[in-house]
Amino acid sequence: VAAAEPVPERRSLLAAALPFTQALLAQVGRTLARAQAALAWPEGTPAVSSPPPPPPPCAPLSDADLRSYLGPGGRLLRPQDLRLHVFHGGVEPGLRKVVWRYLLNVFPAGLTGQERLSHLRLKAAEYSSLKVALAARAAPAELAQVAAAVRKDVVRTDRAHPYFGGPEEGHPHLAALQALLTTFALGHPRLSYCQGMSDVAAPLLAVLDDEAQAFLCFC
């Protein structure tokens, strides 16, 4: 378009655009200068530092390892170190029942071993009351809808595992999984129950073998 304009008009357009162009180029120059300053390395420093070495292989957390993280009275003194150990090495299967409750923040910080047992008893009583109260408060249609959605997944979750194997009718572990998930759904109406929650709750229940504690860990 500028080429088709008369010469005087074209010159006036260029003159009007010149300050903007100069300002833009100046800004680009400042930006490049900042980038060069940011990327400039002190003399003798390599431009790319070598990555840190990977952590050494770590054996699964053992009972002796767990005790090393506990202080007087059984207080957990080094929770971050415990988590890092589990992250890098896992947990011996026999300790999962104990360690998972630490990892899933069931206990407030600083409790002794005796205080943790009291805390679990208190939470178990609270869960029993909550389960009854939520079932009584829910409308029959809502309760039936939630229970049906949960039941559909419960009867097909980890049925090959010995803990959940066997006939459906009267199966105590299937009933516990059903109650756990139904209580959670009724207590969290916005979230309710979503397919796949049973896959998270089932291993918790199978390892802890306690409905109330599995509920706490699931939450």
From TrEMBL:
Keywords: GTPase activation
GO molecular function: GTPase activator activity
GO cellular component, as recorded: autophagosome
Organism: Irena cyanogastra (Philippine fairy-bluebird)
Parts of the chain that traverse the membrane: none
Domain called Rab-GAP TBC: residue spans: 90-219
UniProt-recorded name of the protein: TBC25 protein
Pfam families according to UniProt: RabGAP-TBC (PF00566)
Example GO biological process: regulation of autophagosome maturation
